[in-house]
Amino acid sequence: MEVQIAISKIRKYATSSSGDTAEVIERPNGGMSVVLADGQSSGDGAKWVSSLVVRKVIQFLADGVRDGAAARAASDALFTERGGRVSATLNILSADLQTGTLVITRNNPAPVVISYGNQIKMLTEVSDAVGLRRDTRPMISEIPLDTGLTVVVYTDGLVHAGSYYGDSMDVCTCIQAEMDGENPSPAH
């Protein structure tokens, strides 16, 4: 089975550095994981927070720890380090080749978009950011790995895109247009 991973990052206007951090790791028992975190606020402090969270998750995943436990441990580490004063959003996507599934782990209010065939589904269950308290649990979903499956995770930058001008981006419409091979209309 071939798994393709793409990461795109666009610089935020008037900030020196992004609070987003993304890493890809090969799982010790086969498969791949993508870890995406966004530190609270923006700039160097947010980058430090997201880097800490991603480093912790990657460390646990490399040791064979399951995604949900790695997310909880990273949350506890951030809480311990910063006393619950800062948070980060966290997404983990893991292609588990042993079970033939994609494990989606979310500590992010932004939804995850799943496209298969002509259908688009959003995972929108309430999910708390990591670092604000102990025992923060992620939302975990597991879906079969199939040819043509596309999963999109993103941070709040995409959620807020265009809102300054009163025209927020409709992520589902953009993804549907991309899947259809068309350009999204200017209205979205």
Write a brief structural summary.
The chain has 188 residues and is of the alpha+beta class. It contains 4 helices and 8 strands. The protein is globular and about 45 Å long.
Summarize the structure in words:
With 188 residues, this protein is of the alpha+beta class. Helices cover 26% and strands 27% of the residues. The strands form two sheets. Strands 1-2-3-4-7 form a five-stranded antiparallel beta sheet, with helices on one face. The protein has a three-stranded antiparallel beta sheet with strand order 6-5-8, with helices on one face. Helix 1 packs across helix 2. The C terminus is likely disordered.
Backbone shape: globular
Strand residue content: 25-35%
| Total separate domains | 1
Largest sheet: 5 strands, antiparallel
What structural class do helix, strand and pairing data support? alpha+beta
Mind telling me the C-alpha Rg?
16 Å
Number of strands: 8
* Major sheet strand order: 1-2-3-4-7
Count of helical regions: 4
- Which segments are poorly predicted (pLDDT under 50) over 5 or more consecutive residues? 182-188
CATH architecture: 4-Layer Sandwich
**N to C succession of SSEs:** EEHHEEEEEEHH
Ends distance? 34 Å
Question: How are the secondary structure elements laid out?
Answer:
Elements: E1 20-26, E2 32-39, H1 44-62, H2 67-82, E3 88-96, E4 101-107, E5 112-116, E6 119-123, E7 139-144, E8 150-152, H3 156-159, H4 171-180
Antiparallel strand pairs: 1-2, 2-3, 3-4, 4-7, 5-6, 5-8
Helix pairs in contact: 1-2
